[in-house]
Design the sequence.
């Protein structure tokens, strides 16, 4: 039988370590470009202040980057340590983007990041600028390959099941690379990283402006962040990946759960702005709806329907019955019956095998599942709506606040009196956590919304674990919580220390804390 | 596809071997330098110099390890699943070590309290020392076989414990890899630093290098003549895809030496272990005359030959099972599909030369000896 404690602890550990890792990734993605832009200005104009900006934001980048590196390896290891059956079942495809990520992207950023910090005196201006841009490129390529791997979990394409080796094998690599879900995800995720990077620079620059120190430095940083940030937040919202939710069965279920859509509406569907999802009774209480909007956002058309959860559950129930038959045929094949009839029958039904595996939670033999067990499996073939409904709306809300901040920042920056808008500066400062709130909610929506699947329609999450004891996972999970909490406190302490110190930490002698009081307003 | 399936399976053994060797050489001196840090560096300034000798390049070097792991995931998914879940706590300890490294390098010198710096010095020592030993322990266990087996749907079950992995033989191979990486790292420090760190590194190399030679000879003897070895007695056509449960494997006394001597040109197989011994002896000689760069070339050659020797003894096994020898994994049945191996091969052909090119460039940019006047600035660790 399935050890539910083991499954839950394994999921908790992966969720915790992945979400913790993603506290650091967005800032790396965003700051790398901010630094590259600043250094480009330095190389083009020769103004030393832009070099100082690159170096100072680079210092904060380094504090963040160290944690990103430290927590990233955990995720790669965990597929093997805690999700061994997953690794066996889909390694043939899933391992490919991970390996290419290492070779093509992670090598590039990790090798060059040392030269960025230590190479200022050893490289020409243009060479160093090239290094900075390549780090930005490397970190983004890295995100690309990881998101290709993740998108394959949401919408597995280019693969088939091999009953000899009991695993999924690659049939078409270009389908995996050009997975439409991957494209939408990539744009949405890296752009949200740029938002995190720019909100960070905007907020800390606002702090210097509020304190009235290093004005020239802060205003220029603010300007770069407001321009790049406005473009980034617009991309995140306009190219929001809800449009990707019309692709593939799992994504459709996710969309219905996010929107708490129980019934299939006549297109174009109305959008529920507010309501209280009631998973038990399968309805949304107190719903306030805007007509047409959901249909337009999600399908980009007025006549494509968006299926409600009740219909999707019904559909899944028939898939589960077909999956049960596929599992029966698989047993025949593995038992030695390789007659052409069994083989051709299996070929017809094998795409439902994953649905058959959903029954393993109720009966290890699958084929002897009762009616109630099939119904229960169907009911649990979609995620709970309420957590998705709320996290999605928090994400969108945070996004809209940031859009407002960037519009205001861009406007007053263009009018060149941003330092007088103290309300905006305060808002920018205290909004620094917002992108992280939105991003963590976004990942929750993407991954919780994929349940009960590890790989959509192929491998249920509960089957993917290693055959280890739940005590082992309890031990490791406790270790991660303790270690990560301690490291996070250290990281935040250093981040605050250097952010408060500002460019004076560079030791150039040009900034606030390094000067006499009366000279400090010289710039 | 330009090669048949069996050829690709063999090519992937070489590619993963290459990634491991590249990590052992470059990441190897980083680990060794970390382990030596509190012993060779006597005060804060010396320790900062030692940290900065690897500071600009250690991150890139570590990616060889990450890429090797990802390559095993993609090319040998059976292996990845079985070994990572079997070595659960061993891997988590390696992971702890690797997690402590980035903050160790980056955060240590950002706060000037001596207690804080001491803490990270010993953390860096731990995170150099422990993986160096555990990588060796892991390799040692491959020769003994791992107590794991499959059920009929390929869930792998590990029947041992973390402590059972620490048998005397495995601890010996742990010491082997530790002494080898410490020797290699000492040459590196000798190359990058000046008196007095340089002299201490040179002395350390002579001691641990000699220790390594003794351990190595003893381990090879123990493996070949005293351990039961694994041999395939039946296997389907290696050019096809088949399940790892089909072949037949026997485990017998002297099995490793028998297989080792069955190589065509049996005497040539001995070239690998002989190169290890000669490599280290020559390295120690050049180091004693302060030709540290040449010493590093020879210790790199020795590292390569250690891994080649291990690979030749094990071939074609990559994860023998001590409780169900038939469930052992070999390169012929643990591999990914033909198509995956082929695509991944092209990815390596395109990107590996690029990686090697910029890695070489970075080492060239950062070359030269360190001194406290020029090295320790606001940017440095």
Sequence:
């Amino acid at each position: 039988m399935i050890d539910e404690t083991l499954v839950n602890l394994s999921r908790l550990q992966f969720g915790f370590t992945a979400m913790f890792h993603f506290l650091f990734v967005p800032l790396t993605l965003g700051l790398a470009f901010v630094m590259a832009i600043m250094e480009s200005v330095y190389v083009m104009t020769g103004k030393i202040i832009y070099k100082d900006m690159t170096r100072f934001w680079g210092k904060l980048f380094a504090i963040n980057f160290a944690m990103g590196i430290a927590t990233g390896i955990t995720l790669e290891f965990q597929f093997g340590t805690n999700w061994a059956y997953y690794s066996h079942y889909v390694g043939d495809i899933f391992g490919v983007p991970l390996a290419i990520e290492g070779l093509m992207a992670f090598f590039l950023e990790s090798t060059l990041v040392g030269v960025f910090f230590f190479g200022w005196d050893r490289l020409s201006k243009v060479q160093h600028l090239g290094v900075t841009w390549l780090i930005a490129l490397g970190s983004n390529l890295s995100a690309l390959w990881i998101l290709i791997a993740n998108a394959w979990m949401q919408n597995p394409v280019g693969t088939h099941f091999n009953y000899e080796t009991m695993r999924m094998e690659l049939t078409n690599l270009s389908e995996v690379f050009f997975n439409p879900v991957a494209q939408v995800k990539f744009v949405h995720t890296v752009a949200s990283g740029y938002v995190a990077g720019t909100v960070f620079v905007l907020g800390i620059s606002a702090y210097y402006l509020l304190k009235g120190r290093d004005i020239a430095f802060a205003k220029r940083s603010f300007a770069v962040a407001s321009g790049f940030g406005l473009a980034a937040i617009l991309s995140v919202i306009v190219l929001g990946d809800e449009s990707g939710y019309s692709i593939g069965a799992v994504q459709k279920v996710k969309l219905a759960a996010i929107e708490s859509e129980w019934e299939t509406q006549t297109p174009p569907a109305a959008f529920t702005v507010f309501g209280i999802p009631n998973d038990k009774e399968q309805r949304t209480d107190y719903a306030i709806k805007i007509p047409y909007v959901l249909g337009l956002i999600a399908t980009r058309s007025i006549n494509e329907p968006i299926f409600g959860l009740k219909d999707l559950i019904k559909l899944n129930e028939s898939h589960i019955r077909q999956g049960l038959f596929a599992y029966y045929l698989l047993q025949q094949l593995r038992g030695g019956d390789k007659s052409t009839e069994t083989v051709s029958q299996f070929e017809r039904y094998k795409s439902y095998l994953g649905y058959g595996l959903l029954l393993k939670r109720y009966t290890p033999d699958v084929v002897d599942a009762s009616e109630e067990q099939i119904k229960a499996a169907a009911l649990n073939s979609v995620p709970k709506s309420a957590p998705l409904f709320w996290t999605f709306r928090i994400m969108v809300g945070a996004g809209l606040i940031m859009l407002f901040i960037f519009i205001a920042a861009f406007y007053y920056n263009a009018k060149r009196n941003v330092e007088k808008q103290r309300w905006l500066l305060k808002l920018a400062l205290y909004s620094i956590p917002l992108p992280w709130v939105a991003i963590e909610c976004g990942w929750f929506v993407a991954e919780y919304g994929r349940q009960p699947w590890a790989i959509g329609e192929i491998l249920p999450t509960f089957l993917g674990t290693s055959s280890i004891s739940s005590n082992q996972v309890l031990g490791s999970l406790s270790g991660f919580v303790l270690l990560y909490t301690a490291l996070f406190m250290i990281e935040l302490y250093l981040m605050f220390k250097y952010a408060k110190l500002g460019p004076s930490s560079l030791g150039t002698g040009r900034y606030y804390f390094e000067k006499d009081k009366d000279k400090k307003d010289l710039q | 596809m330009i090669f048949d399936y069996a050829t690709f399976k063999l090519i992937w053994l070489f590619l993963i071997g290459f990634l491991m060797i590249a990590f052992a050489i470059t990441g190897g001196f980083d680990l060794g330098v970390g382990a030596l840090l509190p012993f060779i560096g006597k005060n804060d300034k010396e320790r900062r110099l030692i940290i900065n000798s690897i500071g600009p390049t250690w991150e890139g070097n570590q990616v060889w390890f990450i890429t090797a792991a990802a390559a095993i995931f993609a090319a040998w998914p059976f292996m990845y699943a079985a070994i990572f879940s079997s070595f659960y706590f061993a891997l988590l300890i390696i992971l702890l070590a690797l997690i402590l490294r980035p903050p160790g390098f980056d955060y240590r010198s950002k706060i000037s309290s001596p207690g804080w710096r001491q803490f990270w010095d010993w953390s860096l020592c731990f995170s150099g020392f422990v993986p160096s030993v555990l990588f060796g322990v892991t390799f040692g266990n491959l020769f003994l076989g791992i107590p794991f087996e499959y059920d009929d749907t390929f869930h792998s079950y590990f029947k041992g414990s973390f402590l059972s992995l620490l048998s005397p033989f495995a601890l010996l191979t742990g010491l082997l890899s530790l002494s080898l990486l410490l020797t290699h790292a000492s040459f590196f420090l000798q190359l990058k630093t000046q008196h007095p760190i340089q002299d201490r590194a040179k002395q350390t190399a002579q001691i641990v290098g000699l220790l390594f030679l003794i351990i190595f000879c003893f381990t090879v003897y123990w493996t070949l003549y005293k351990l039961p070895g694994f041999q395939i007695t039946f296997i389907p056509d290696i050019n096809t895809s088949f399940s790892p449960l089909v072949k037949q494997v026997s485990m017998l006394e002297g099995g490793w030496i028998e297989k080792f001597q069955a190589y065509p040109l049996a005497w040539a197989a001995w070239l690998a272990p002989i190169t290890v011994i000669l490599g280290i002896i020559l390295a120690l000689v050049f180091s004693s005359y302060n030709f540290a760069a040449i010493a590093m070339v020879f210790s790199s050659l020795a590292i390569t030959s250690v891994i080649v020797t291990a690979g030749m003894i094990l071939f074609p096994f990559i994860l023998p099972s001590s409780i169900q020898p038939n469930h052992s994994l070999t390169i012929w049945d643990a591999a990914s599909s033909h198509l995956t191996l082929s695509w991944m091969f092209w990815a390596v052909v395109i990107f590996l030369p690029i990686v090697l090119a910029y890695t070489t460039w970075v080492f060239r940019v950062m070359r030269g000896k360190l001194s406290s006047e020029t090295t320790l600035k606001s940017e440095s660790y």
Residues 517-523 of chain A have pLDDT under 50 and may be disordered.
